[in-house]
Recover the amino acids of this structure.
């Protein structure tokens, strides 16, 4: 089964991959409900849906990582092999995941032929034939990559090429690309599209998962939309208007808020500029930022909205000094911040609620009180740095009341709290130092409804007390505490909304990279 | 090295094959040198050795150096294999001591501190290998399958093995061992000790295996990106456990070499060996993170450490200071290796 690009599509146009009325349930969650979808040879089939719609579940069914509860998977017209037979799956379907499946210390050629013989059925590795076959494969598909290079030195784009080449060399004619452009530059995205086009010409069927709807329109033939585990729309891309695609993704909004996100009423006056970001550019794996400017005034809450990899979290990390900008500047309370110095930023009065609360948010084994006061140790201690327990208890009590933290006692280790209460501790910690600027990233991810309300109310209160808040989030519920919204797409500010209430559909369209005038 | 591929693909739009061939050579040369960054250090040591004592450059002394490094080298091969798959094993030094001890104990007469069973020396050799295999299997299964932390688990195992060694011997030494048992450490072929031949052959075999065998390449993949290795259908757990087993057997054989060299097994055989093993492997470019490094590099690490020990012995440095100097030289070697080879240490 070596690459044979000239052969083109098979004579019988059986779909390269097909899900027939599949159901999948995880515990209480119905992840997929009666979903049917097929990818034909030479076709690029777009799959879209908001987070949690069931895309990943469908991918794991199609790649043989899990089995459907009901319904069946067919590959190249044949019933799917058993889950145990990894080899058979790898021959028929390949998936390029968002996280890299490349082995950094090995060469490109080795990565392409990972764990597969290239010359006969011997356990020995024939380096010559492996390298020449890898090289030929690269030429065949038009990938410009030195096969002797160490994979660890490759760019994200090149790693992706290696993974695609690996899939093709196994002979898979069904390729799943899971958000392939999330970490790519604009020019790299164009090159990826050229590659996908070549693959289609070579008879490969591609299932293309993306959050960026404009990409679907650019390279896909058909598109399917998943929402809450159900296939709500499927058809030729040219027949589906962008508006109806967005509507299908969003669905009917919860009745309480209809399609509009009610903004929490603003009390208190808007004051002077507290946080100014001026022409900021940052290179980052997690999403680069190109020439972003924004400012937040006292008493304002600016929502910075963007998908994973859009750069919105990078802006936040740069403001607090976790990342150094390549160009541009940040100033806090009128004075320029020293780039890359977290303690300096915090010292200037920036409170920070990090994205990943487990990694950066709290010390799990310490109690609620200690965590709440980690940022203000200097205020707790007096002579020789000895911490005053009385002051600590006072501050911790105030914050925990403020945020309605549920714990047996203030000394309970944070690791044993629920996710929502952990997050309250993180927010409380940031507020304990009475910040003048608060940078908050995805504060309500994985948090229960009641905690969410408490957290958002606390933010709204802080805002009304004159704190300048930058709220980075892709959860639209969070945005109701905002007074202004800026949407980031691919590292740039793509749209600004400054009049609440926010319209869900227009917001989604903007976030997904479409023109706002839907 | 490259098979001709130009004619078939010449009309295609990308990368001219000739340019590619040139890049090949450069990559190979760069890679080759990265493995040999310790060579200049070794040359400096050779010069230093000659200056310190004229005895240094005699055949007998150089053979002495190699013989001293042989047992260490075997354990370095063993540890390197484990390190490549992203784990490590501290108890190799325990196996290094306990395996030959058990063998010797069961074959030596009571008069020379044996148990008195006086088994055939061949059974003694078998016991040595079986002890190695058993310890490796336990370590492998519990670290890989049961997910014990490799550091603390093999540390405890090491303490246990060394403790058994001391407990059985009560501080004495098993001596008067039969010819067959000490052959590996005491005999010579063509004027060069068997131990040296065996160690060199082991290095070569390991290097070739790692380079040309599918399982060898799979070991790099496992250490380099576990998820990717799994997804590629590599039997990750089986290979890792197998590596633990092979490594422990190698350590047992190394212990046999050491026992043969001094024609006895002491209660202290193997203690503190593991630090030298890690030092040699790491300055030789084997990454503690897994997936990176080659046997050639590890060999230069062993040569360097053995030379240092020898030169220190030949010099007039007081024996109580040798450890301090040893440590300092390892630190310097690490620094140099980092400067030249970037990604190690």
């Amino acid at each position: 089964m070596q690459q044979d690009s000239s052969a083109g599509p098979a004579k019988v146009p059986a779909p390269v991959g097909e899900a027939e009325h599949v159901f999948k349930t995880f515990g209480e969650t119905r992840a997929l409900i009666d979903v049917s979808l097929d990818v034909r040879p030479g076709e690029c089939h777009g799959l879209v849906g908001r987070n949690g719609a069931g895309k990943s579940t469908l991918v794991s069914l199609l790649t043989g990582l899990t089995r459907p509860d009901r319904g069946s998977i067919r590959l190249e017209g044949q019933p799917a092999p058993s889950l145990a037979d990894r080899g058979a799956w790898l021959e028929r379907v390949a998936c390029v995941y968002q996280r890299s499946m490349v082995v950094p210390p090995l060469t490109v050629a080795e990565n392409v032929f990972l764990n597969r013989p290239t010359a006969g059925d011997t356990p020995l590795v024939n380096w010559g034939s492996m390298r020449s076959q890898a090289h030929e494969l690269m030429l065949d598909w038009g990938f410009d990559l030195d096969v002797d290079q160490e994979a660890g030195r490759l760019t994200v784009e090149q790693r992706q090429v290696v993974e695609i080449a690996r899939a093709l060399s196994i002979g898979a004619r069904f390729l799943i690309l899971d958000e392939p452009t999330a970490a790519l530059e604009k020019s790299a995205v164009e090159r990826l599209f050229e590659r996908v086009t070549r693959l289609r010409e070579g008879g490969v069927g591609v299932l293309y998962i993306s959050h960026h709807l404009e990409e679907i329109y650019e390279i896909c033939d058909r598109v399917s939309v998943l929402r809450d585990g159900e296939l709500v729309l499927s058809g030729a891309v040219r027949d589906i208007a962008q508006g109806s695609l967005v509507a299908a993704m969003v669905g009917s909004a919860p009745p309480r808020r209809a399609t509009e996100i009610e903004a929490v009423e603003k009390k208190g006056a808007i004051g002077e500029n507290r946080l100014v970001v001026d022409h900021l550019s940052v290179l980052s794996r997690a999403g680069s930022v190109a020439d972003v400017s924004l400012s937040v005034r006292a008493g304002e809450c600016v929502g910075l909205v963007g998908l994973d990899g859009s750069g919105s979290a990078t802006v936040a990390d740069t403001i607090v000094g976790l990342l150094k900008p390549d160009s541009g500047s940040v100033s806090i309370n009128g004075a320029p911040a020293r780039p890359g110095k977290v303690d300096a930023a915090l010292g200037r009065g920036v409170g920070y609620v990090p994205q990943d609360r487990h990694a950066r948010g709290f010390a799990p084994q310490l109690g609620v009180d200690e965590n709440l006061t980690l940022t203000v140790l200097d205020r707790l201690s007096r002579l020789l740095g000895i911490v005053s327990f009385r002051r600590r208890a006072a501050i911790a009590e105030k914050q925990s009341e403020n945020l309605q933290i549920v714990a047996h006692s203030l000394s309970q280790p944070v690791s044993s709290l629920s996710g929502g209460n952990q997050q309250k501790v993180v927010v409380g910690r940031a507020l304990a130092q009475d910040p003048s600027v608060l940078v908050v990233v995805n504060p309500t991810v994985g948090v229960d409804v009641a905690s969410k309300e408490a957290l958002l109310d606390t933010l709204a209160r802080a805002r009304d007390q004159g704190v300048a808040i930058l709220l980075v989030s892709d959860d639209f519920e969070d945005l109701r505490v905002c007074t202004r919204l800026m949407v980031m797409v691919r590292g740039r500010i793509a749209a600004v909304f400054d009049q609440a209430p926010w319209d869900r559909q227009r917001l989604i369209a903007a976030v997904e990279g479409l023109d706002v005038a839907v | 090295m490259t098979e001709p591929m130009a004619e078939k693909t010449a009309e295609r739009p990308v990368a001219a094959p000739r340019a590619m061939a040139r890049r090949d050579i450069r990559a190979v040369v760069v890679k080759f040198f990265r493995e040999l960054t310790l060579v200049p250090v070794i040359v400096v040591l050779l010069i230093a050795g000659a200056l310190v004592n004229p005895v240094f450059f005699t055949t007998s002394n150089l053979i002495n150096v190699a013989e001293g490094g042989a047992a260490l080298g075997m354990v370095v091969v063993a540890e390197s294999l484990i390190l490549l798959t992203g784990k490590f094993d501290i108890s190799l030094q325990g196996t290094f001591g306990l395996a030959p001890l058990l063998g010797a104990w069961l074959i030596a007469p009571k008069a020379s501190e044996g148990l008195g069973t006086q088994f055939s020396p061949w059974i003694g050799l078998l016991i040595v290998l079986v002890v190695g295999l058993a310890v490796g299997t336990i370590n492998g299964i519990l670290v890989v399958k049961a997910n014990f932390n490799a550091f603390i688990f093999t540390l405890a195992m090491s303490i246990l093995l060394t403790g058994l060694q001391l407990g059985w011997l009560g501080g004495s030494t098993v001596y008067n061992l039969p010819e067959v048992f000490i052959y590996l450490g005491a005999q010579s072929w063509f004027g060069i000790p068997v131990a040296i031949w065996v160690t060199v052959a082991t290095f070569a075999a390991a290097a070739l295996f790692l380079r040309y065998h599918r399982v060898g390449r799979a070991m790099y993949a496992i250490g380099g990106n576990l998820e990717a290795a799994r997804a590629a259908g590599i039997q990750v757990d089986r290979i890792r456990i197998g590596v633990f087993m092979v490594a422990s057997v190698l350590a047992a054989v190394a212990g046999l070499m050491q026992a043969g060299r001094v024609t006895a097994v002491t209660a202290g055989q193997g203690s503190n060996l593991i630090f030298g093993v890690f030092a040699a492997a790491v300055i030789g470019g084997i990454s503690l993170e897994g997936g990176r490094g080659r046997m050639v590099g590890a060999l230069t690490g062993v040569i360097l450490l053995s030379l240092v020990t020898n030169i220190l012995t030949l010099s007039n440095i007081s024996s109580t200071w040798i450890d301090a100097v040893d440590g300092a030289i390892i630190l310097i070697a690490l620094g140099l290796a980092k400067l030249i080879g970037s990604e190690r240490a």
About this structure: Residues 236-262 of chain B form the longest helix (27 residues). Residues 38-341 of chain B form a domain with the ABC transporter involved in vitamin B12 uptake, BtuC fold (CATH 1.10.3470). The radius of gyration of chain B is 22 Å. Chain B is about 70% helix and 0% strand.
